[in-house]
Amino acid sequence: MKTLYLDCGMGASGDMLTAALLELTDDPAALVAKLNGLGLPGIEYRAEPAVKCGITGTHIRVLVHGHEEGEEAAGHAHEHHSVKDLAELVATLSLPEEVRADILAVYRLLAEAESAVHGVPVEQIHFHEVGSLDAVADVTAICLLLHTLACDAILASPVHVGCGQVRCAHGLLPVPAPATAWLLRGIPTWGGEIRGELCTPTGAAILRHFVQEFGAQPPMRVEKIGYGCGTKDFPAANCLRAMLGRSGAGERDRIAELRCNLDDMSAEAIGYATQALLSAGALDVFTTPVGMKKNRPGVMLTVLCEAEMRERMAAQMLLHTTTLGVRETLCERYVLRRETETVETPYGAVRTKVSTGYGVTRRKAEFDDLARIARENGLSLAEAESAVQSALARR
Q1: Is 151 in a helix, a strand, or coil?
Q2: What is the pLDDT of residues 172-189, one digit of tens each?
Q3: Dihedral, CA atoms, 218, 223, 227, 228, nearest 10 degrees?
Q4: pTM assigned to the model
């Protein structure tokens, strides 16, 4: 499984994430050129080498109308945007639809954080620091880079937030800033002794949207490492490290297991619900006999689905069954890598499923092809399978 692990031991910010991910790409210069051609008004990306505590990495500079953030002449860098303004801007960019959706989802999180902190409805939120064009540029770049890397899993370490105070548009605030703290709810964080804002609202929103799990680095074969350097100097290397590789000897993915108990549906109705759930995209649907209240026999309906589909599948369970609630468990599963080969046999071409990983290799002929061979040649299914297996053994 293609896995990205983000080491946030020195926090996370938009520019550090952008730089670290850029180093993981096959052609960073081409990606920078692509970013500069997106159509963000007045934006120019520059990737420059940087060194922090002896570690060489990349620093991303975002120029807005020719000036860096914080320069008096920039003028435009702190334009304020609402969610509606950003949606209109993103719609003009030359980006895949999935990337546009990710950008807006990240900014929706930022708007919700500002709304919670300041007590203002989301629709009335006007961004300050996180709404400036240089921040929009960071979010856009990160969403495009993650789309380009196309990882199966995105994981991260607990997030170092720093300590002390930070000055922002609203005055002097504690670290982590209130919006950052809101975005990091439920995510493991730590403060440490380094004074300063290590995790920004933009960094926190990106992590919340994309990262599936926070914790220690899992066993993985790391193939590429990227270092995104910040601008400030601290006693520790001010870098975000991104590691790209493969985890598991076979494959590992994340699924949702949804369950509900039923005691007032007929077998026909449960059968219909099962087929409807499979047609809606469930990976598997099965039933288990259970004893329920008042000693009534019942059925537990279990649905396995991709983690990101769990709300949709839960809605389908509520629609097609009589249950009043659905239980959810997120699971990690170990699976073999699967591919299909076509094998020539005396009875014609047969599709064969090949499963490998964790020291296991299996080959199994496609049932529909076996059934066809049996029908066309007057054989039993067992005889057709034996003939195909003999052909596979001679390969």
Answers
A1: coil
A2: 889 999 999 999 999 999
A3: -80
A4: 0.64
